[in-house]
Amino acid sequence: PTSAGRQIAHAMTAEQLFDTIGVRFRAEDFLAGVGVDRVDLQWNITDLDEHHVLSVGNAAISHHADQHADEPAATLTVTRSAVAMLLGKLTGFGAALESGELAVEGDSDVVASFFDHIDGFEFFALVEP
Predict the structure, then answer these.
(1) End-to-end CA distance of the chain
(2) How many domains does the chain have?
(3) I need a surface site. Which of 72, 103, 111, 125 has the fewest CB within 10 A?
(4) Residue 7 and residue 77: Cα distance in Å, rounded?
(5) Is 34 inside any structural domain?
(6) Nearest to residue 88, comparing CAs of 21, 19, 41, 16?
(7) What does the pLDDT look like over 58-76, one tens digit per residue?
(8) Which of 76, 84, 19 has the alpha carbon at shortest distance from 50?
(9) Is 124 within a domain?
(10) Is residue 127 part of a domain?
């Protein structure tokens, strides 16, 4: 990603980051890979003091702000910056865990698969001299 793309991601609200995931996420492949029809992930974004549920089902994702999942597959504790870094493929799931930028309670394999099923965007110049 370009420097401008990274800056935009770091300025996004949590809702905008989840919308970005929705555009780039291969939900059907993810669900087939984990072998279930539905996955709920609880997100606790510490620097924003926000709680979100991201549900994957019916080949789509849905986002619910200020919610708590009854039985999430996993709970992610993370900063907005770390989410932006993961979405921009500037850091990997394992590296984020090791650095402490991301903590996972529950099924970390499901979370790793989740991030593996987010496609990256290729940035290119729209106008060149």
Answers:
(1) 21
(2) 1
(3) 125
(4) 22
(5) yes
(6) 21
(7) 989 999 999 999 999 999 9
(8) 76
(9) no
(10) no
